Fold:
Amino acid sequence: MFETLTGRLNQIFDQLRRRGKLSEADVDAAMREVRLALLEADVHFSVVKSFIARVRERAVGAEVSKALNPGQQVIKIVNEELIGTLGEPAPLNLTGPKPRVVMVVGLQGSGKTTAAGKLARLMKSKGERVLLVAGDPYRPAAVKQLQQLGERLDVEVEADTSITPPQLARRALNKAEKGGFSLVIVDTAGRSQMDAQLMDELKAIAANVNPVDILLVIDSMIGQEALNIAQGFRDNVSITGLVLTKMDGDSRGGAAISIRSVTGVPIKFIGAGEKLDALETYDPARLSSRILGMGDVIGLIEKAEAMYDAQTAEKQAQKLMKGEFSLEDWLEQMKQMKKMGPLAQIMDMLPGQMGQAARGIDPALVEKQFKQSEAIINSMTLKERRNPDILNASRRRRIAAGSGMEVQDVNRLIKQFREAQKLMKTLQKTGGKGLGKLFG
Structure:
């Protein structure tokens, strides 16, 4: 997510940090570079023009000239203005009597049906009793797809291709009222392009169920075309929020930065992966932090909290800091980390120098090393995992053969494990000194 833009901005910021003082010419040179970076990231030109003007006005004033660290102050201004450009957080509207209805609309191929399933999972985790409605009888297998998602989520799906989508939506609402459902999510039909028939059907569904939110799902990878689609839907249907999908595959990020300013419609969710838990509530401050290469520590913590058992995590943390953790603990850590989602997403959230270093690593290579490490540790006996000191040459040969690896692979893993132990013992002795430098 935003790899290209983040890389360019980090280069610009590194140059700013190196200067003790910043002249107006220095600021102008930096702003030219930022402008080019944003335009290359496919950010709308009007948004870039306004953004650069606001940043420059603040950056050449007393706010920067009197700062102890002018370069850092300019970066702070860029962050604040980027947050302003990205818009205010806009949570799902859950006001009014239950059941509340949310419509999910969009063009074909935008990830609309999957987004409906992800939203159902998210809201169910927050205590809502959800009913999904398969309102797309035209696309082959669309109904089946939603039913399969419902089975995986243990969420009921209302479907009937013998009646029109507006009639189905009304029937689903009646069922929800009688059955004690608190939220109805209507997946609607899409088209390859906007047309009058599509819009008329969406208007009829909305008239039948009076939704609290109409969410437009947009593929972020289509760049500035996303702005035209959003404006087209907004002019025909009362769109109240946007869901940007496939953000994990968008290295530029122009649509995410532009769309709020250009359309006036708030972003409510972003999809960053294929898994059903890969839907994030939109937070401009956290997204700005990721764009500027500062990571997303809060998002990382939330992912960890969702997957880790608190008591187990606390015990493992104590072991880590005492340098007492074993290969068995290390294996458990790797398994828990994999549950948090694709490694590329986790690396994208790391802050400071850790984040910069991580973005230079191939996630596929790390995933491969994870699998190799798991295979090696799984080939050990319980005694060997808990006490690696007993791993002599013959044991290492046996482990290598059992895991399908070479002896040097086993030796490398043990060396990495020893270095991790040594690092943790050092951090414990120094009271955690050095962590600040690591996180930038």
